[in-house]
Amino acid sequence: MARLRGTGMAAVNYPTGMNLGGDPSQALVHATTSGSFIVTLSATDLGQGLRTVIGQIAAETLGVAYEEVVIDTADTDTGPHDMGTFASRATHRVGNAVKAAALEARQAVLELAAEELEAAVEDLVTDGHGNVLVNGVPSRSLRIADLASRAQFQYGRTIAGRGSFMKPKSGVDPETGAMDPDSTEAHACTIAEVEVDTETGEVAVLSIRSAYEVGRQVNPALVRGQIVGGAWMGMSHALYETTEPYYPSRDHSPKDFAEYLMPGPREVPEIDCVVLEMPSSNGPYGVKGVGEMTANSPIPAIVNAIYHACGVRIDSLPVTPEAILRGLDALA
Amino acid sequence: MTTELHVVGQSVARSDGVGSVTGRSLFTADRSFPGMLHLKMVRSPVHHALLKGVDLSEAEKVRGFVRALTHADVPHNVYTILGLIGVEPEEEFVLAVDRVRYKGEPIVAILAETEAAAMEAVSKVRLDLEELPAVFDVEEALQPGAPVVTHWGNNTFMFEGHNCRRVRYGDVEQGFAEADHIVEGVYSTSPIEQAPLETTGCIALPEANGRYTVYTNTQALYFSLDNTSIILQVPGNRLHFIGGMVGGGFGGKVDVIVEPLATLGAMKTNRPVRYVYSRSEEMQVSSTRSAWKIRVKDGVTSDGRIIARKVTSYADSGAYSRQTPYALTKHAANAAGPYAIPNVWIDAYCVYTNRTPTSAMRGFGVTMASFAIEVQMDRIAERVGVDPWTIRFLNAYRNGDIKPHRKPAEDATLIETMQAAAVLVGHDLPEAFKAMTSDPRPTQEGGR
Amino acid sequence: MDKVIVTFELAGRDVDVMVSPMTTLQSVLRNQLGHTAVKDGCRQGGCGSCTVLVDGEPMMSCLLPVEDVAGRSVITLEGITPTDGLHPIQQAFLDANGYQCGYCTPGMIVVAKALLDHNPSPSRDEVVDALSGNVCRCTGYLPIIEAIESAVRAAGQQEARA
Questions:
Q1: Residue B421 phi/psi, 5° resolution?
Q2: Domain check: are C112 and C67 in the same one?
Q3: pTM of the predicted model, to two decimals?
Q4: C-chain residues within 8 Å CB-CB of B30?
Q5: Cβ contact (<8 Å) for A46 and C101?
Q6: Which of C59, C80, C101 is at the close of a domain?
Q7: How many Cβ contacts (< 8 angstroms) between chains A and C?
Q8: Range of the structural domain that residue A106 is part of
Q9: What is the C-alpha end-to-end distance of chain B, expressed in Å?
């Protein structure tokens, strides 16, 4: 009877977008009289922080501070169509739609500024702090807040934009499966370290350490949130969760959290990550997306680590203590 | 255009954080409205049965009972959730008509003044059921003579004339013939519940102007609105869907299940109707991730290159297909893994069984493929006699490699990601692997 | 069944509620008193999202008949949040991103407050113990533990300055 340690790895990719495409997102952007910008959407934030990253993309594109952007979502009367938050599509597709709308609004700002500054639009830049200026000539600048007010009251003009993004829907060849399923792919490589108790069959996960490549991190803290939460969920899938513990029999199906097992704070391992950015060709600022994939590489990494620790190769999830003990018996 | 970024790339504070840490943000079930009714559902207690009768007489006597909704009240009762993107046939019943196909299937919706009254009335509805044999195992369900789950007569979803989603790339049999090793594995998983902390739910309100406002925690506002419009046969512009906070989704709030009936209830009673899942409904009745059974057969050369991969996958769709046909196609696009393999054959089946319908969950179609493939890669490594890093570097795909679904790989960075992981854990890779990149292979090696 | 009147102290003020017997404190707080920060994740004592402080002790309000708090003090997250600004524990959760969807967050903060009120410098083990009745599906718990530990450090620095 012993506690045996092992490590295991897994390397995966994960596609961005509703499979085959045909999943549009649209956005509207308009300036208020005080130079804030409202981004109107019908996209839903599931708690991952979509509102925040969309606000960042809008602010970046408009050339204003993050605090000047208000995200107004989710309401079908005011927000234009969006396919939904799933398939790791939101930052990519909603982000692209918002970027397009923000570019149009930005263009309206620059055109007005060009008139007032008597400069060419191409010579104007934004400084990220709410100012438009002639490139290299900081004395020739205007505040976007003032431009927005004058646009309304002096010129009777809108400072607004509309944006849409859709990857056109691909067909699937019924014979060969030929298709264009996704916009881009993110990647992950996870190494898990486990300790198997050969007396009880229980597996403790000691560490989950991963490298992720996600195109562009709009908000690194929120990306880390997905990686850590996903590592926990992957561990949970690998070792604990099932609605049918005796699948395919439906007996003893859990009804509540007491019966639906998931690891608690005591079971959480050390979770460590490094994130690479190799921008995609078609995401806003090179974004790929990360929301779903973070449970995927931990699962086989843990299963492979179990084999390395005690020689039991288990091909069925969840890996229960009973399965480990039966496996050890079979080896003996 | 300046390349310096000011906001993108910064870990700015979330705009909705204060609402969460003060608890001031309202979730769907935190709202209430004067005159609001509570909807509780009568559900099938058995796995598979003929539904011969429903007796509401005792339920109607419960103090606080307002009315019941049956299939006869639903304008378009048979629908399919992916009908909006052209998936056929229509096969799921908003409320059961003459048969139930899974334990928990909705039969009658009870509307009452209080939750307690609704639950009491539900308990007093009498069902006349004649049980039928049920099938729970995917391979058994595909055998001739198995109990048939669907109303249109088959236990497997048809993909344009085929009984599975197919990928055919190169010649796997030729690959197996040329291989030095054949490595096989069977990988199986059981269903998993998304289990968000906040259960699925909505409140539907009749408005004075003849429209209906639905507060919902769906992940897809317009998808829910459009399906509700179809099921209730009302123009979409009479529906106003409002989201806001979602207490976890993970794919568990993409099926359109509560909104149509709550809205129908609001239409029939002219009062707000609240339909929120209990925790046991969320655990047992709301759709789960499919169970999968994935058979992998690989032909591998003596130096560890995978030259043929055959994958046969079964997704257990449960009693109705919901979003699983979509998952099978996504699965087929990803089932061979991020590797350059010249001969690939994939058959991916969507199989009906008498269990809770399965649907989307985080990593839909791909999570379990990754599990199968990555355990398989270690099996191959052991057979060939190399370590797990080596087998993956040898086979890693690169930009320009043709994937089995015939799309050239782009934005491939598996090699760089593995290199970074090796550094993170202090694993010293051989120089050849450290020097690898995802750049397209030199053309002398020929296309794959 | 006849209804009963129960009087208890909620965030420092007496409240009277009229209930059918055995109505849970959770139901009263959410449906009669508007304290919707008390969440409703399971009604089975399995998730901790309904946690409130009863005489300073963390309790699952979904398991407590309201009669049991008669004459006692109840504090929800609404009672912990100051009129202006944030309680230091709330600020710590904000700064550490100790939340994602926000549904478990009220319960977590209530439990954290109870812990730090009793034990101003808990070990990590003691923090983990305190959280063991609260489920989070999103964060993987580490950011929550880090938030509480940073609140402990911040309070220690406040103490040192005082």
A1: -65, -40
A2: no
A3: 0.97
A4: 30, 36
A5: yes
A6: C80
A7: 65
A8: 23-167
A9: 39
